[in-house]
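Hi team,

As requested, here is the filled-out complex form for the 5-O-phosphono-beta-D-ribofuranosylamine run. I kept the field names the same as last time so the parser does not choke. Let me know if anything looks off before we queue the next batch.

— J.
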Amino acid sequence: MKKLNGKILKYNIAIFISGRGSNLKSIINYSLKNKTKYKVKIVISNKQRAKGLSIAKKNGIKNYFMNFTKSKKLGNFVLKDLKSNDIKLVCLAGFMKILPRYFIKSYNGKIINIHPSLLPKYKGLNTHKRVIINKEKFTGCTVHYVNRYLDSGKIILQRKVKINPKDTEKTIERKVLKIEHKIYPLAINKILTSL
Ligand code: GRF
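And here is what came back:
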């Protein structure tokens, strides 16, 4: 771990959200632990009313709303902001837009996402519903690198969750989310170790 005058130097990361921000919260909480390798420096939402923005505010983290996938001008503004804040990793946490190609290229290999299924199964939306329809015995969540294809980048970390016959979409969501909150902060730390 890098140190300066005996103090541990943490890598700056950015989180992109669109809504509730429960993963954001778990990532922030983990980052406050002593031995964590990262600090959440910026939170950007593409939705003005995203609840996650208030979580960032409460924690004194720079945050703003910008629908930046809408135009290259806004996208470049965000890229410049990330670079001037020395952001080493961008983490999508419930970010509901596909990032434009130029954006991914510019942060090549340094953007990750969490998805509520055992990828490569169930890419895209409504994963829990589809898992029930297909009578799966297990589901789970996956942290993966972002490339230009939906939910298709290299897998970093994955955990299984058992489905019981009585489970509903809601109960599966709850169980999977609990595991997401555990693995996302760990995956971030794991990647930053290899930098
Ligand atoms: C999570 O289930 C995540 O896997 C998916 O979107 C949801 C976001 O939830 N990509 P939250 O905003 O982190 O609470």
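Two things worth flagging: The mean pLDDT is 95. The helical segments are 22-31, 52-58, 72-84, 101-106, 127-133, 169-193.

Thanks,
J.
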